[in-house]
TrEMBL record:
Pfam families: ABG_transport. This is Aminobenzoyl-glutamate transporter. GO terms for biological process: p-aminobenzoyl-glutamate transmembrane transport. The keyword Aminoacyl-tRNA synthetase does not apply. It comes from Pseudohongiella acticola. It comes from the Bacteria. The chain crosses the membrane at residues 35-58, 92-111, 123-144, 150-167, 221-243, 275-295, 315-334, 355-374, 394-414, 421-439, 451-470, 482-505. Keywords: Membrane, Transmembrane, Transmembrane helix. One of its GO terms (molecular function) is secondary active p-aminobenzoyl-glutamate transmembrane transporter activity.
Amino acid sequence: MTNGSTGTSGRRGWFTRFLDSVEWLGNLLPHPVTLFALLAFAMVLLSGLFGALGVSVADPRPSAPEGSVIEAVSLLNAEGLRLILGNLVSNFVNFAPLGVVLVAMLGVGIAEKSGLLSAMVRGIVLSAPRHVVTVAIVFAGVISNTASEMGYVVLVPLAGAIFLALGRHPLAGMAAAFAGVSGGYSANLLIGTVDPLLAGITQEAARLIDPSYEVFATANWYFMAVSTFMITIVGSLVTIFIVEPKLGDYDSSHADPGVLDGNSMEKLTPVERKGLLGAGVAAALVLGLIALLAIPEGAPLRDPVDGSTGPFFRSIVAFIFLFFLATGFAYGRVTGSMRNDRDVIDAMASAVSTLGLYVVLVFFAAQFVAFFGWTNLGVITAVTGAEFLISAELTGPLVFVFFIIMCCFVNLMLGSASAQWAVTAPVFVPMLMLVGYAPELIQAAYRIGDSTTNIITPMMSYFGLILAWATRYNKNIGIGTMIATMLPFSIFFFICWVVLFYIWVFLLGLPVGPGAATYYTG
């Protein structure tokens, strides 16, 4: 995103050539749905090959009898065919991420359809003093990840209009919002839909080693809440001291003629403010109910035997649904956007309808994950990889630097967080568990790698949409210049996030989430 000056043409050409390479490599990959279908088919063929070769490893699990081994199981036979066809439906409906995402989205859909989420973002940004508007935009972008699509669709174009109205370069505002929404994708003060989704995939992968292991939606909450402030600070500083100086003064001659007309920021109306107050009251009531059910000794959501909060954390998705249901409907009733149960039902149906592609993807991803477990290839790969890490003496905290870099690279080619984690988790979660690290910690490291390169990969589903909005302010903008603008965010997010990870986990010894262990002891 540049102002079209000749001084940056060389850099634009370099980034354009770089992006051409990324696009060429990315285009070699099929659609994520097709990719999982091919992976599932390949797993059947590989299982037949490794089964015929008699591939096996020593069973590393503490409960295993001495001298026992884990052998590759072939699915390329009659028994394998019966297993595949007989469990096709159960693999799908029992896939952990599916149910939790559907339930969470029912609630989020109500909050989005009522206008609550949009009003919250506008309220945060537009009420901020001029000198802190950049901070407010980046922070609002991170918070919008509770329903990330709303951030892309509402906040990014709004940020461009805000900066233009303030006499600043509109593309700098869009870059700040894009960095918050997508670069800080995993950070948030609240538990969003991505948390139960990733936790479900992590749990499926962890159970390749420990069949009873549970990963809760709050597994990374502490670390991601702290990361919210880090992303906000770093994103704001990069915008102010790197991006805006690089863009220079805005030249409106390159803009779409219509984009400069009627450039007024839409402030919250009195009705919307009353709606937010009503939503706040509803939120307080829901939080009070949660506290009543979970905090007192002997509360219904405490384990009756040892008093632990395990039942509460297993109920977190239900509370996400209840929270957004209550606040969204309260806002809708006050503003008039929701009047009865039919409006609520329509909002939930609309939210679920947007997940059609996700449901299709999950069907094939669930088959791949199931096949991976049945064949024992996941455990064999993990044991082999763990033995390599031990022999190479890469079992210390430094192993996470290489793991995060690997996740950054994979994210350039496979932009979907759930698709990428569904592919990599069955390998790396068991592998790093065998080295001695807990699944929750491994997931937190993955989220750093996944988030930091979101803003520089054309594989990210909203990349093209952001570019289309940017061309309204500069019709000459190209994909390479967009990469050049967003790359500083990606670099500084990576450096600062990795440093924060090591300080939080290994220097201060703090957990990444409630009840989340750092080390796995079996």
